[in-house]
Design a protein that fits this description.
This protein is about 50% helix and about 25% strand. The protein is of the alpha+beta class. The strands form 2 sheets. It has a 4-stranded antiparallel β-sheet, covered by helices on one side. It has a 3-stranded antiparallel β-sheet with strand order 5-6-7, sandwiched between helices. It comes from Stanieria cyanosphaera (strain ATCC 29371 / PCC 7437). Keywords: Membrane, Transmembrane, Transmembrane helix.
């Protein structure tokens, strides 16, 4: 007879756990935009830099007319520095706004504060929090995602149960829970 699986867990969700969750639950189009924005911007910048370099090399070799250069070398260098500065500012603003939005959501959502506990079995995940209890059969979970020792079990497209590694009483419980989740829930 197979051994019955029953994994107990519990703990308090921290603001850092919530921030990690918020980073990874961005809408797909925003995730796509920020994933490829760097490479798109870098590609355009390199093409622009190469066109300047090509124009300068043609003039040096005597194939072009110096009057064809629209910008002086100092203007090109200041453009390059400006490009780098704008890109760094954009990245800084993105990460700051993500952190601020996460902090606001953390402070305004009282349901995620307090002590959480639960039991994972072969058929169901029981989830207890200060405001109630829930029972989730594994087949209602849409997907899971594991990031930085945090398991996120999505019950809706943008809503997940956040279960950090430190909720488990031992490393064996954590590993057994991970195996159970990977066998029962589709990965994103």
């Amino acid at each position: 007879m197979p051994e019955k699986i029953e994994i107990h867990f519990g703990g308090i969700l921290t603001e850092e756990h919530f921030y990690i969750y918020k980073q990874y639950c961005l809408p797909t189009w925003i995730e796509f935009f920020f994933k490829w924005l760097f490479w798109f911007y870098l590609g355009l910048t390199i093409v622009r830099w190469l066109s300047w370099f090509n124009l300068y090399s043609m003039i040096i070799k005597g194939l072009g007319n110096p009057r064809d250069i629209p910008l002086s070398f100092d203007e090109v260098i200041s453009d390059v520095i400006g490009d780098v500065f704008i890109f760094i500012c954009f990245l800084w603003l993105f990460f700051q706004s993500t952190k601020q939005n996460s902090k606001k959501a953390w402070q305004s959502n009282k349901l995620i504060h307090g002590n959480f506990s639960g039991v994972a079995t072969e058929k169901t995940l029981f989830w207890n929090h200060p405001y109630g209890e829930s029972r989730f059969p594994w087949d209602v979970m849409l997907k899971y995602r594991e990031v930085k020792n945090i398991m996120m079990l999505y019950t809706e497209i943008d809503r997940a149960l956040i279960i950090p590694r430190n909720f488990f009483y031992s490393e064996e419980d954590w590993q057994e829970f991970r195996q159970l989740v990977t066998s029962k829930v589709p990965k994103k």
